[in-house]
Amino acid sequence: TVNGYAFPSINMDVLRRTLPYLTYLSIFSHEVRPDGTLPDIPDEPLIRAARAANVAPLLVITNMREGGGFDSDLASTILSNEEVQDTLLDNVVRIMQEKNYFGLDIDFEYIYPSDRELYNNFLRKVVNRLRPMGYTVTTALAPKISAVQQGTLYEAHDYPVHGELANHVIIMTYEWGYTFSPPMAVAPLNEVRRVLNYAVTAIPRRKILMGIPNYGYN
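Predicted structure:
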């Protein structure tokens, strides 16, 4: 089972040559707004190409602020307001139906540790809404090595709950080496192994997708 992330701006020839090797295509991304609305993105050509190649296109929602990175406050706004969540899910369902998506990929990162249970409850609401409609739910998870790992990136990602609720989880086993780090591998094998050794104790193995970076840093 192979998932590939793609921006709408991807070279379509590259996409077409890659699709025969994919199971899922996660189109990155619909950035959730504080009121639960979603901006329109030019994703239709990617969806059509994926469907033509018998690949399942996934709608990706993120807590990224417009023109910026992942926003903890934005996530908290969504997760603490049931009405905003209902609006968000209404928009997710509308877009998936209109554009022929196969399922949803939730990539919420840098969630405040205090919002951990709110995120779990949001995931329960998403699954209860989408699964009866035939949609799959995937989540992206920070690369944890224990249940009690500290840090804003890690604490709100509850491996056992995601493993129970989601169809798949995509573990972000990369970014040990990054723009401001000392020179090192983006995904050192020893670190990746530590993450997977913990993951299989908390999540059914058949649900785990291991992240593989196809980029490097100079």
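Summary: The chain has a mean pLDDT of 97.
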